[in-house]
């Protein structure tokens, strides 16, 4: 599994940022909110990592 920062998101993930609060929404999972902008969090079977450089959340399925 590898994280990546890319403007071309592979799946329909929308992103919002408010201060250090991010919400990731995928086609397969319910939305979860988390505050740690430097770590990878496990959302059920999917892994989402935060690309703070480009200020969005990317999906890292494997």
Topology diagram in text:
Layout: E1 14-18, E2 21-25, E3 32-34, E4 40-43, E5 46-51, E6 56-59
How many distinct beta strands? 6
Number of helical segments with 4 or more residues: 0
Helix content class: under 10%
Average pLDDT, rounded to a whole number, is: 42
Global geometry: globular
Largest pleated sheet: 3 strands, antiparallel
- The total domain count is 1
Structural category: mainly beta
Which series of helices and strands comes N to C?
EEEEEE
**Major beta sheet, strand line-up:** 1-2-3
Features:
single chain; 62 residues; mainly beta; three-stranded antiparallel beta sheet; globular; disordered C terminus
Summarize the structure in words:
This protein has 62 residues and is mainly beta. The chain has one domain. The chain contains no helices and 6 strands. A 3-stranded antiparallel beta sheet has the order 1-2-3, with no helix packed on it. The protein is globular, with a radius of gyration of 10 Å. It starts with 13 loop residues before the first strand and ends with a strand.
Describe, in short, the structure shown.
The protein is mostly beta strands. The chain has one domain (14-59).
């Amino acid at each position: 599994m590898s994280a990546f920062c890319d403007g071309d998101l592979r799946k329909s993930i929308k992103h919002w940022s408010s201060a250090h609060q991010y919400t990731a929404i995928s086609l397969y999972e319910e939305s979860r909110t988390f505050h740690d902008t430097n770590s990878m969090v496990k959302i059920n079977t999917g892994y989402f990592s935060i690309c703070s450089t480009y200020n969005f959340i990317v999906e890292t399925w494997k």
